[in-house]
Fold each of these.
Amino acid sequence: MRVHSGEKPYDCRVCGKRFSERSNQARHMLIHSDEKPHKCSVCDKTFIQKNHLTTHQRLKHHMCPVCEERFTDDESLEEHLRTHVEDGTVDKSVLKPYSWSAQRPYSCSDCGKGFKFCDQRFTDDEKLKEHLRTHRTEPYIRTYS
């Protein structure tokens, strides 16, 4: 109930930040050391928190969080994840972080950028228009009326 009462009895001995849970204090203490206990098996990059490693593997190495199979691109990974949902291994909510098209619905019709999370999909049409300017052969000259 400390979370609701606002009580924070655990403090960081280095910076003084206070925490309601001992586990949060312990995790915080890692930022003051060089300890990064979670290591990527693909590129050897290390992380303080396991969820940061999981995110790294999903975005950089296209790794399935269920069976750890790797894919060459995000689309293949998303397609693979659907097999886990269909066979009942996992709930369909596992697909939510992978549905980039729902998060960034505007894609560039010239270069096709936009399907993968890390490959410029745009959150609104203004950002898409700005990107489209990079495909023009002549420089864009703004006219004022």
Note: The first helix runs from residue 2 to 5.
Amino acid sequence: MKNYIAFIASFVMLMLVLQVGSGMLLTMLYEPGLTEEVGTLGSTVTFGESTYMFPLVVAMLAATISFFISKRLS
């Protein structure tokens, strides 16, 4: 039970830190590109692209680190 609690606690904390960190990085690197799309502002709306690979990699990284943290605590 101790390993399970250590794994879950470290996984949640690492996921939170990695998601906030990646959000800050993406915000800092965002360039709107308004100069190329001035002519199409009124006719098209782009909400962004969706990819499932980056969140999956972040979750796998957090789970791997959490596993090793829980093994070290036992």
Note: The radius of gyration is 19 Å.
Amino acid sequence: MVASLRSSMQTSKTLEPSDSETTDPAHTMWTKLHSKFNKQTSVTQTMAQKRIEAHIFTKNARFDTYFDTLNRLRSEANAVGCSISDGDLLSTFFASLPETCLWSFRNMSGSHRKQGQSSNTSPIVPTALAANTLQTDARPPLICHNCKRRGHSKPRCYAPGGGLEGQAPAGWIPPRPAGRFTTAAATSDNTPPGTSTSTAAPIALSTIYDLGSDLEGTTHSPVSRPVVDCLDPRYRGEAPRFLDSQADSVAGNGVPYSHVLISSSNQSIAPTFLDSGASESCVRDKSYFISYIERKAYGRMAADGDSGKFAIEGYGVAKFTVKTQSGNINTFTTAALHTPSFAMNLLPIPAFDAKGFVGSWGRE
């Protein structure tokens, strides 16, 4: 028993710092220990913060592994005196994402804000959709400005007006002639009363959507906007172009137009169709739009002549909830015209192709 006590006393004596005396008060001993072993210096704090900033999310990384390491680095940083909050970690995560991902977060945030304002949800598109299994490239797709097709440029285009016109290989199928949507003029108070509107879906309107990485500044500012700007260049389409060409005449006639956020939705549900011949979305009900510009105009389908005239109340970004073939529910947003005279919503196949979806005709 005496031997064990002596051994314990010798062990405790070796743990005492050499520069402290057993007769020193407790406060004096604690001050000496703190000055010798304290690691909470500005240097260690700076190094801990730099380790967090250097831990970025790569393209092929796993979310669980990334956040486990990020939480461990935060614990180490807080242990040396830093104060790293959850918001700081999220900012680090968003800043490390590629620009092609940030557009989805901004639209998702705007969609959640709209859902909080209204309990009504958008109807599910009755047409079944199957997610494309092909991996899309992060770079913007190459689009020919002559024939609007993907995969080549105008100097290498076989279509009329292209650099290789008349040199197409055997079996080459020319594209459908663009510009079926031939005329668009602004309406005013002096519109003839006999003007008729068509309830048929327009088979015209050509656009290929390129939602590429043109988000300047979003890498350094991951804060989302509550209102989606439908005049943003990422929503490339015929609607902004031909309606903007009528801006002077519309303003001259005193027809107001404004940029508004839709906060309410009606109960009417219009059928939705996919059309391979059209590439511009036409939406019947205003409740589908999450961002909207009121601007009155009218269009005319070349196939129907004067009887094919239809009214356009405005345009913006419409949101649809689509059900994939596997049963998943996804949100699909696209630039669209507001055409209340139509009997249905019209979604173009190329708009789905640009976002990685393939139309599957029929019902499940």
Note: Confidence is low (pLDDT under 50) at residues 11-17, 126-134, 179-267.
